[in-house]
Design a protein that fits this description.
Strand content: 5-15%
CATH superfamily: Glycogen Phosphorylase B
Number of helices: 6
Radius of gyration: 17 Å
CATH topology: Rossmann fold
Strand order of the largest sheet: 1-2-3
Distance between the termini: 61 Å
Shape: elongated
Number of strands: 3
Structural class: mainly alpha
Order of helices and strands: HEHEHEHHH
Number of domains: 1
Largest sheet: 3 strands, parallel
Helix content: 40-55%
CATH architecture: 3-Layer(aba) Sandwich
Amino acid sequence: MAAELAPFFPDVAALYRNAHLVISRAGASSVAELACAGRPAILVPLPGAIDDHQSANARAMAASGAAEVMLQAGNQSGNPDGFTPAALASALTARLEDPTRLIPAAAAAAGLARPDAAALLADRVQALAHSHTTR
């Protein structure tokens, strides 16, 4: 199994194009990129993230079938091993033994994509601004 590990990648898009599975934190940009790339993931929410938003993002991806969530701290409900080498090895082994599991997960990720999100947001802001100027 080939893997690349680094604190920063200058060309994430190229890595996504070549990846069958991504292991990542679950920040908003990360999950949006995963969805737009249509890549299944193992998400490890950052403990202590403001308002626990990464856990919420990870749960949403998992609920759609696009991701598996592994909590960084052990002994958590539903994930007693947490994100440990053994738990990660088990998750990766399961996917190696049945890589077809990644196909519906990739489709689920792509189904969450909103590549036009910036344009939609801009339209809503303009509509809101217009509604306040015409009063």
